[in-house]
């Protein structure tokens, strides 16, 4: 098979970086985790802090065995697959292999592509710049909306109507606008208690 065919099958994937750190955001905040950041994203968020991830062709294409070997080198057994936009790829083979090795699998996605993979926790962070694929709504365990603009509260509520009733709802200030929006988010959550707050605590800890 060619590299393109192997990527299409999900047997090889472009990896921008992979590193062992502490999950800074959302449900698993504070947990040690191995992050696998796949290269490639076509969503185009203006405030994206990993714009270098967008071009998939810039990053080395690795076999899923090699990717999982990297994760196995560390003691933690939580893996977070992120990007870029990881659902641009078929994640079934990678997550199957991770599960076989005993990992808990999490994904962070904008949901802009069809869902794939076997994940224990799906963090769905929709973006205004590319509409989510309908397959994500039933899968989402956590809806995490980044607040960058006052209209993001209405955007968050619109998506909250579409996810499962047991999906956890979180609002997270965009880092560069945190000073402006954190007080508004605090006030919003106090008045709309189905929501809670996610902070990018890794940035406070100065870790990746
Ligand atoms: S979906 Fe994520 S990686 Fe893609 S542009 Fe938006 S913030 Fe950046």
UniProtKB/TrEMBL annotation:
What is known about its subunit structure? Homodimer.
PROSITE patterns (UniProt xref)? RADICAL_SAM (PS51918)
Keywords, alphabetical: 4Fe-4S, Iron, Iron-sulfur, Lyase, Magnesium, Metal-binding, Queuosine biosynthesis, S-adenosyl-L-methionine
Question: Which prosthetic group or cofactor does it need?
Answer: S-adenosyl-L-methionine; [4Fe-4S] cluster; Mg(2+)
Q: What does this protein do?
A: Catalyzes the complex heterocyclic radical-mediated conversion of 6-carboxy-5,6,7,8-tetrahydropterin (CPH4) to 7-carboxy-7-deazaguanine (CDG), a step common to the biosynthetic pathways of all 7-deazapurine-containing compounds.
**What are the residue boundaries of the Radical SAM core domain, all occurrences included?**
28-208
Q: What is its EC number?
A: 4.3.99.3
Q: Which residues bind substrate?
A: 22-24, 37, 82, 208
* Pathway note: Purine metabolism; 7-cyano-7-deazaguanine biosynthesis
Q: What is this protein called?
A: 7-carboxy-7-deazaguanine synthase
* Pfam families named among the record's database cross-references: Radical_SAM
Cofactor binding mode and count: Binds 1 S-adenosyl-L-methionine per subunit. Binds 1 [4Fe-4S] cluster. The cluster is coordinated with 3 cysteines and an exchangeable S-adenosyl-L-methionine.
> What residues bind [4Fe-4S] cluster, as annotated?
41, 45, 48
What family does this belong to?
A: Belongs to the radical SAM superfamily. 7-carboxy-7-deazaguanine synthase family.
Where does the chain bind S-adenosyl-L-methionine?
47-49, 84, 125-127
């Amino acid at each position: 098979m060619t590299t393109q065919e192997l990527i299409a099958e999900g047997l090889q994937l472009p990896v921008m970086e992979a590193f062992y750190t502490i999950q800074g955001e959302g449900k698993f905040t504070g947990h040690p985790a191995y992050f696998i950041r796949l290269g490639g994203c076509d969503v185009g968020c203006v405030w994206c802090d990993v714009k270098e991830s967008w071009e998939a062709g810039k990053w080395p294409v690795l076999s899923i065995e090699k990717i999982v070997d990297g994760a196995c080198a560390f003691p933690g057994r939580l893996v977070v697959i992120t990007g870029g936009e990881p659902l641009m790829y078929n994640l079934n083979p990678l997550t199957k292999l991770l599960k076989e090795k005993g990992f808990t699998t999490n994904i962070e996605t904008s949901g802009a592509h069809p869902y794939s993979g076997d994940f224990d926790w799906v963090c769905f962070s929709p973006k205004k710049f590319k509409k989510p694929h309908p397959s994500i709504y039933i899968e989402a365990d956590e809806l995490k909306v980044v607040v960058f603009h006052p209209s993001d509260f209405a955007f968050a509520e619109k998506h909250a109507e579409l996810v499962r009733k047991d999906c956890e709802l979180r609002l997270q200030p965009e880092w560069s606008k945190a000073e402006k929006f954190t007080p508004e988010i605090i006030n919003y959550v106090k008045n709309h208690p189905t929501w809670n707050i996610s902070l990018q605590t890794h940035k406070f800890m100065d870790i990746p």
